[in-house]
Amino acid sequence: MDRKTRIAVVGAGLGGMTVAGFLQRAGFPVIVYEQAPSFSRIGAGIILTSNATKVLRRLGVEQMLVDTGIKADCYISRAWDTGKTIYDIWFDAESEARFGGPYVNIHRGDLHAVIHSVVEPSAVAFNHRLLEVKESADAVRLRFDNGVTVEADIVIGADGVNSKVREHLIGFEPPRFIGKIAHRAIFPTELLGGYKIPDCTKWWGPDRHLLVYFMTHRRDEVYVIGVMPRKSWDTEAASLPSSREALFEGFGHFHPDLQRVLNVVRDASVWPVFDRERNDRWSGGRVALLGDACHPVRPFMAAGGAMAIEDAAILSRCLFEFDTPAAAFRSYEATRQARVGDVQRISVENTWMGGPTETDWFYCYDACTAPLAAPQPVRAT
Ligand SMILES: Cc1cc2nc3c(=O)[nH]c(=O)nc-3n(C[C@H](O)[C@H](O)[C@H](O)COP(=O)(O)OP(=O)(O)OC[C@H]3O[C@@H](n4cnc5c(N)ncnc54)[C@H](O)[C@@H]3O)c2cc1C
């Protein structure tokens, strides 16, 4: 694409900032529009697998990730009742060389700070909540809740699971509550009183699971996320306060090693889990979607953020490579959809690393060098 092509990205999350970083480096005029007034340090951690960290390396922030988060040395799966190890994987220099990048656990607030450093601050417009997208033959017009209207040649919808840009392409469809909630808690390691825990453990129960991991290389902050069934989520709120008692209600019957961890939880919050049916319409005209906006992934494989980051790398390469939005978007979809479909399916099954697991196809993938698929014919709409 002509480097004068004006590109608007909606959403300054993981996918939006990554794609903006790549496009800006290639010389495109790109502006990111974000509804939030700024980013707050929400109480949660995130796992960035090597397929994600090697993309972020190209934006110059690998060291910042490692310095802020932790290169976890293992991921251990244990049975909820016996405590038996049912799967483990160890991360060291050798595995990092094989996978091509480190495996990093990090606080989401710290990750936001890292990811925001990849784009010129003047190219991020906070306080812009997208209300409407209008497309004509030669431009796209975006209208925001603050009264501002802007025009761009290409729009990338990186606006998450409730995407307004998706609504423009497909029509309004609320995301699906999957009948599970996630209790999240963070506490200082010193509360464990010297009790040693591995860098990352997933406890597997029949209908629920719980992860415990460190989020800093000092190993001074522990993150707990426990996912369990709930019939409905009947509030507009993104999250609600939770408690140690609620965690015990859900996981009090798990192995005593876990009880020692849950015992020291002080504050917690509870979040609904949403996804959508697979839908391979990710673009149309001058508009394309990425990340949760087009394929929300259940958070059971630690892969949704990684998929948004991979999308960003592939979509930006397609925009460098092809002359028209249609060709770029067809190649992007053809390159991404099989892999993302596999990840969505495995995440729904919640089987990843719950037993013998072939991980290389996921971890070794490099979205910055993987071959781009030929553009597929334009679909009839
Ligand atoms: C409990 C839980 C645990 C998870 N753990 C992991 C993990 O360990 N590893 C992993 O890789 N993934 C994980 N994920 C998934 C991951 O968080 C998401 O897949 C990822 O954040 C998607 O990135 P995104 O850029 O597509 O969207 P988001 O990160 O959701 O960003 C969307 C942005 O768009 C903005 N926005 C929305 N609407 C508008 C609008 N109308 N106008 C302007 N701006 C707008 C939002 O404010 C937001 O900043 C987890 C998810 C959950 C729910």
What do you see in this structure?
The chain is an alpha+beta fold and 381 residues long. The chain contains eleven helices and 20 strands. The mean pLDDT is 96. The protein has helices at residues 14-25, 50-57, 62-68, 93-99, 108-116, 164-170, 244-251, 256-262, 304-321, 325-349, 360-363, and strands spanning 7-10, 30-33, 45-48, 70-71, 74-79, 85-90, 104-107, 124-125, 130-135, 140-144, 149-152, 154-157, 176-188, 200-204, 209-214, 221-229, 240-243, 267-275, 283-284, 287-289. It binds flavin-adenine dinucleotide. Flavin-adenine dinucleotide is lined by residues 10-16, 33-36, 46-47, 128-130, 158-160, 162, 164, 182, 271, 273, 291-293, 297, 299, 302-306, 308.
> What is the CATH architecture annotation of the domain at 176-275?
2-Layer Sandwich
C-alpha-based Rg, rounded: 21 Å
The largest pleated sheet is described as:
8 strands, mixed
Which whole number gives the mean pLDDT? 96
The small molecules bound here are: flavin-adenine dinucleotide
**Any idea of the CATH class of the domain at 176-275?**
Alpha Beta
State which percent range the strand residues make up. Answer: 25-35%
Number of strands: 20
**Cα end-to-end separation:** 24 Å
- Quaternary structure type: single chain
The CATH topology of the domain at 176-275, please? D-Amino Acid Oxidase, Chain A, domain 2
Please bin the fraction of helical residues. Answer: 25-40%
Structural class designation: alpha+beta
With strands numbered from the N-terminus, the spatial order across the biggest sheet is 6-5-14-15-16-13-18-17
* Unreliable parts: none
